[in-house]
Amino acid sequence: MIVRAQVWWTILQMCIAERLAYRGDFILGTTMRFLPIVTQIFLWTAVFASAQSDQMAGYSRNDVVAYYLLTMVARAFSSMPGLASGIATQIRDGQIKKFLIQPIDLIGFSLLARIGHKLVYYAIAIGPFAAVFYLCRGFFPGWPAGEVTAAFVASLVLSFLLGFFLESSLGLAGFWTLEISSLLFVYMLFNFFFSGHMFPLDIVPDPWRTAIEYLPLKYLAYFPAAIFLGKVPENRLWLEVGVEAAWVAFFIVLCRWLMHRGFNRYSGFGG
Amino acid sequence: MAVIEIRSLKKSYRVYQKQEGLAASLKSLFHRQYRDVHAVRGIDLDVHKGEFVAFLGPNGAGKTTTLKLLSGVITPTSGTAHVLGFVPWERENQYRRRFALVMGQKNQLWWDLPAQESFQLHQKIYCIEPGAFQRTKDELVDLLGVGALLGRPVRELSLGERMKMELIAALLHSPEVLFLDEPTIGLDVVAQHNIQKFLKHYQQLRGITILLTSHYMKDVAALCKRVVIIAGGRIVHDGSLAAVIDRFSDYKVLTLQFADEQMPADLARFGEVLEVAAPRARIQVDRTEISRVLSAILSNYAIHDVSVEDPPLEEVIASVFAMSASPAQPGDAQAEHAADVAASAAK
Fold first, then answer.
1. From CA B273, how far away is CA B252, in angstroms rounded?
2. Which runs of E-coded beta strand occur in B119-267?
């Protein structure tokens, strides 16, 4: 166990070092991620002004801005830029071979690599994040109770795991299709609408709302924000977190199964 | 007991046959044609501990496929193989800690980080004891003369320097079996020579078993006593390098240095004249005729110098390849027939 922990620690250190290799790209990518939230604030301010109403599907303007800021936090955990396409590229160009030859697990390695990248991102982004939240503190109803905060934190950690295993599963589809860009495009489209990234899912009418409830995507953005804003009833709080955990477990199993089957059908492309 | 045991190993791929043109592309959306490519058609091979075996064959012959099967990268269609007692495609960690695969065209080091960081990762994933790791690393770095490059990002290394680092990474865990897939591809003559020298020294030092594929005959001649020629997915020769020439070459090259004014005008009666630059001449002579021709020349002309040589190795191997599979279509009937011809020529 200690040996395994040392391997993980070394991989984590290397992933952090690798992430810092291209400073310019990293700093630009980190700071520019705050721009969309500014445009969202202006957009929804305009929407409420034109609607000449303080409320929209149970959301005030302040609620909506707070919601977007919180989904930004959730997406900082759940979004996995380049993960699925990276795995598919490794399959196509043959780089995946090293995970077949060396005594190292592809999924475990990728997870550590992603944790390393996220840690570096959080270390740099925490300053701008704190500044944005401080400047926008007026939009928030206040800090939630301890149990709700705990559920919020748990939902963020689970959203990271869900995003990782879901996108890894998509990447592993590359063992069958080699090219997954269209699959990813469809996924990103669904993700954009059904994760709550585009708008709060409460405003979606039935039967769509019910359908979205049965998808795992809402846990990637909407769910942590909804917990923080008190949109999830307290008596259902941990049940919902449990459902999110069940989705994570499902995608862990799916990911492992795809990897196992994929390795067995792999043709060793790329020389 | 053999370190590598292969019995009736076969690997076939189903590949999409893309027709030319836009209409065919549109048609392929609804109906696709596939073809079975038989990359390996039933190989039997034993390799013993400490052997350095060359795997030769034209492009598409099945060399790299065999190495991929033995390293567990791919799973066979049928047949069995055991390396160090393990079935490679079961990918047990115990097995993966005892062999290494180096591919000349593939980089396994971290591209943006110095090689020494990849080495440290290897130390952890292969569970190498720190003292042994340091000793092995120092030894390999010293042998390959790359001490000054350890801190430089891999992307900034030359191809030859990178290959040296790849070899170090592959050997850090002291593998008992090493698979080398064209390790000198793209390298200049000096870098090729350095890698050859290192491999020869290391193999003698450690007594490890090495299977090498290469298109450079100098690699093969310098390193391997045993040569396995594979063509069209079948083994057509398994023996020494000298035996390749004996089996597949039916002539020798006679070089003669005549005394002044003694050079005959009708050299062609002795064999095919390759070169004449009086008083020197080179003639290609049938192997069965060599003693008769030599005796006739020596008894009739004044000769200052004479040598009898085998044809260049590249030439012999090229003729074996020419008899065997077509590189473009290793799965087709023509290739299969050609491989059969080459196989029977070897018998």
1. 12
2. 177-181, 209-213, 226-231, 234-240, 251-258
Q: Is residue A49 part of a domain?
A: yes
Burial class (CB in 10 A: 0-12, 13-18, 19+), B260: exposed
Q: Which residue has the higher pLDDT, B263 or B71?
A: B71
Alpha helices by DSSP H, B4-44: 22-27
Contacts of A22 in chain B (CB under 8 A): 112
Residue of A nearest to B39 (CA): A267
pLDDT tens digits for range A126-153: 888 888 888 888 888 888 888 999 999 9
Q: What pLDDT does residue B215 have?
A: 82
Strand partners, B102: B180
Q: Does B159 touch chain A (CB under 8 A)?
A: no
Residue A271 covered by a domain:
no
Q: Between chains, do A271 and B13 touch, taking CB under 8 Å as contact?
A: no
Q: Is B59 on the interface with A (CB under 8 A)?
A: no
How far apart (Å, rounded) are the C-alpha atoms in residues B303 and A30? 82
- What is the domain range of residue A9? 2-265
Of A14, A21, A271, the CB nearest to B121: A14
Examine residue A62 and state whether it is found in any structural domain, yes or no.
yes
Between chain A and chain B, the number of residue pairs with CB atoms below 8 A apart is: 71
What whole-number distance in Å separates Cα of residue B56 and Cα of residue B42?
16
Beta-carbon separation of B74 and A268 below 8 A: yes
Q: Does A113 touch chain B (CB under 8 A)?
A: no
List of domains in chain B: 4-245 (3.40.50.300), 250-309 (3.30.70.1150)
Query: Quick check: is A125 in a domain?
Result: yes
The answer, for B101 touching chain A at a CB cutoff of 8 Å, is: yes
Q: Which residues contact B283 (CB under 8 A, 6 or more apart)?
A: B253, B254, B256, B267, B270, B271, B272, B273, B274, B293
Number of separate domains in chain A: 1
> Is the Cβ–Cβ distance between A88 and A179 less than 8 Å?
yes
Could you tell me if A179 lies within 8 Å of chain B, comparing CB atoms? no
